[in-house]
Amino acid sequence: MAEGTGMSKALAGGIGVLTVSSVCGLVLMTVMYKIQIDKFPPVSPPTPTKPVIPTGLPPTLRLPDYLIPESYKVFLQPYFYSAITNNYTNQSFIFTGNSTVRVKCMEHSKRIYLHVHDLNVTTVEVTKSDSNEKLVVSGYKIHQNESNFLEIQLKETMSGHGTYYDIFTKFEGELLDNLAGFYASWYTKNIKFEHNYCCLFLFTVLHKNVSTNRFLATSLLKPTDARKVFPCFDEPALKAVFHITVIHRPGTSALSNEIGEIDGEEWIVTTFEKTPVMSTYLLAFTVSDFTYISKSSGTNIHIHARTEAIEAGHADYAIQVTENILKYYQNIFGLKYPLKKIDQIALPDISAGALENWGFISYQESGLLYDKKTASSFDQERVATMIAHALAHQWFGNLVTMRWWNDLWLNEGFATYMSYIGVQDAGWDLRDLIVLREIQTAFQVDSLNSSHPLSLQENYIQTSAEIIDLFDDITYRKGAALLRMLATFMTEEAFMKGIKTYLDKFQYNNTVYNDLWNCLQETKENVEAFMSTWIEQAGYPVITIITQTGETSQEHFLLLIHSNIVNFLPNSIPWQVDIRYIKSTDFAVKNELLRVNVRRPHFELKDKDDWLLANVNCTGFFRVNYDEENWNKLRMQLERNHNVIPLINRGQLIDDAFNIARGHRLNVTIALSLTKYLINDTEYIPWESALKNLDHLILMFDRSEVYGPIMKYLRKQITPLYKHFEEYTLNGTIPEKHTEQYNQVNAISVACSSGFPECIEMAKSLFKDYRNGTNDIHPNLRRAIYCSAIASGDEYDWEFAWKEYQRATVTAEKDKLRYALTCTKEIWLLNRYLQYTLDPSKIRKMDLVSTISYIAKNVAGQPLAWDFVRGHWSYITQEYGISLGSLLDAVTKRFSTDVELEEVLEQDEDDQALAARALEQVIERTEANIKWVKENKQIVKEWFMGEL
Length: 948
Ligand SMILES: *[C@@H]1O[C@H](CO)[C@@H](O)[C@H](O)[C@H]1NC(C)=O
Ligand SMILES: *[C@@H]1O[C@H](CO)[C@@H](O)[C@H](O)[C@H]1NC(C)=O
Ligand SMILES: *[C@@H]1O[C@H](CO)[C@@H](O)[C@H](O)[C@H]1NC(C)=O
Ligand SMILES: *[C@@H]1O[C@H](CO)[C@@H](O)[C@H](O)[C@H]1NC(C)=O
Ligand SMILES: *[C@@H]1O[C@H](CO)[C@@H](O)[C@H](O)[C@H]1NC(C)=O
Ligand SMILES: [Zn+2]
Description:
single chain; alpha+beta; Immunoglobulin-like; 5 domains; 31 strands; 40% helix; disordered N terminus; binds 2-acetamido-2-deoxy-beta-D-glucopyranose; binds zinc ion; protease; metalloprotease
């Protein structure tokens, strides 16, 4: 338990106690504690080695396959109290338990391997199930490497004829506050004045602010932390039935995957119904004093949260959305949700946005709770989207599970893709935004040599760190993008038909992606041939069409073309490209399947005024480049009448042009001039695409003389959009359509940040009213307006917002303020704010990554954030135990100088095992930026100067 011991001491030892008793016998207590930041010397993870075991051994870090678990009986007993109400209570964050797992043995053997991590195993017994006869255990040991194997050695040989054995273990563990495994968490409960009117006197003394800390225990087991709760066969294909019992203190209730029955007094014993056959990573346990609301419609739906949030009605939206989407999914997937109940819980601290545990889904508060008064449309949509994603997993992942983590995309790609269809049913017409949010983002990472194929070979992914690395933009977003492409290729109807077959055939089972192709092929031929070129190799092509001749070719699109790689990576094969296109002469969408580079007569334009547009709606996962003439004709069409070009493509043309220019295949001035027509477009998709790409230019140039001209141009372009929404903005109202609402926010944040005086005045005045006690700012605009006011404000504005942040009880409002605080230009405030991120009583652990990332986005905060991350890297990686790839990515986005590259390379020499792939990608991106900036700085500057 090396890293374990410190934390619970910190939790227990740091508790300061203040007790006040009153005439009515009410004993109140404020527990204040500050989690001490214990300094441990960084421990480098052991290098993966073959376990050194005598015979019959696993050749890899995977469990041997001769023991097949069938069922578990697990008892867990956490000792903590949710509240400390007197001086004599000894808070304790220990848990104990025992587990009996019944296995089928398929090979004669004297050894048993299962997974254990950070648990003290105190007893091991093995019995033959049918005869109850005990086998003599000669010893057991935990392997000191990344295998996390608990090896049990037996005196006698187990019979391998499908004989059943029961493996019993007793164990002890600690509830740490590290957001992993079975962990401790806390929240502040405000005790309301009116509930305690008898203690008026007392409260006067306490200035009416009475809040106490409440403790809870919850779990996050995905992907490989079930082994931190009880010894188990912790691989997704080793599905079993689980009988869970949780023994907990009165005043708390226990939740797990199935319905619980309660009995007991001093301790409450909650026994849960047996689960369906399922993977270990989908188990979940929570012990808390939360309350809930419920609804029944075939399935019992419960939403659990802090009492205050439930009483304020913040869970009402989630329950309604859950009911709708659940029904809808059962319909389109053709399979009933298999459990009787679905619990969802809003947790104060969880490092994932949501966890799809079967029948018991956990969320960050902002992912499940919705407060009409303070939430923006974004916040509300986030709730719907997160629920849609987690519910999709109940089928994709929970019912049908990937065989091993290398095919994680079968879970995450599907859940991401389906969430866009699911939210549609909950009233969010956002299907097209998949292009902005998922596809364009996937394009970014996947244009690097250091990207990876969507599906890696099984034996490449073995350690927990390698598994965690896979939770990235490729798995989620490229996975979703390719499913969308496939659905278009097959037609959506045929696709959904094949999906139903797949779910039906493999329910309660595990799959590899070929199982999916086989099911889809029942409705459309050649799915496998089409998809294998996309799944098995990294990257994507840029298709170049020369419209004068119709010559069409494909090339692996890379930002940085190394001199030794031409056209394709070694071993790469041409992609099968389904090109859907329109011409100015014929708006009917046609398609061509391209594999080899040839002349396509259809792509030849006869008249010099005609244009061709390929990849209609960006359904294909590729970029398109044209001859300059065709680019210019498309631009002129946009300027003449942009509505002729499909909405998604107005955004995609811009995104393609900027990125192809970043990849040195197109003059950047062509990309820049595509943004000129925006003065007449008010749609969100093209604007958002343009702003993302201009944002990248700003990152490259905001420390140079190019910055001024870029800002002037932006101000000029954004003014009409700002004016378009001005009436709403000034009246404190919002447009009806969601995408319009999002674009109103764009208009304000860009107008203000580019220095448009009316915008800054508006923001300042609204913020001033807020400081004087009336917050009339529409929730949609708060993030932008707080940020702008703090950026142009002083120390007192910052302190005011900081107080408001600490006072706010609704996470959605807190998050807006937490973001806005990063907008200040004051170095000392930013530096102090960075320090706050290490103190969980100021910035919660789960918010560390995003807070530092926001600070890095601010040009004044960039070098501070980078120094901070470097200085605290070992501490952060150890304390947070989560993949920090996204943090590394965020703090280095601006990097484009040789000095910065050197600094990153220095990090590479240090121990960076936790984010190895992310670091590689950062290095490559920085190299690409350096090269690009050198070649293009002058050109970009001149173009912007010319537009003034
Ligand atoms: C609790 O401890 C405090 C400080 O040690 C003491 O002043 C107080 O009387 C104790 N209260 C009870 C109810 O024992
Ligand atoms: C496991 O723990 C529970 C609760 O402490 C206990 O009731 C049960 O007897 C234990 N099981 C065995 C086999 O010891
Ligand atoms: C686990 O064992 C170690 C070493 O004996 C001990 O220091 C630690 O307190 C134990 N942890 C628990 C939770 O019992
Ligand atoms: C799981 O699928 C495999 C085929 O991939 C099949 O052989 C096996 O019987 C299935 N198992 C169950 C429990 O359905
Ligand atoms: C492109 O997407 C739009 C929605 O933005 C849709 O109405 C249109 O039918 C799509 N076109 C094709 C060819 O799929
Ligand atoms: Zn997911």
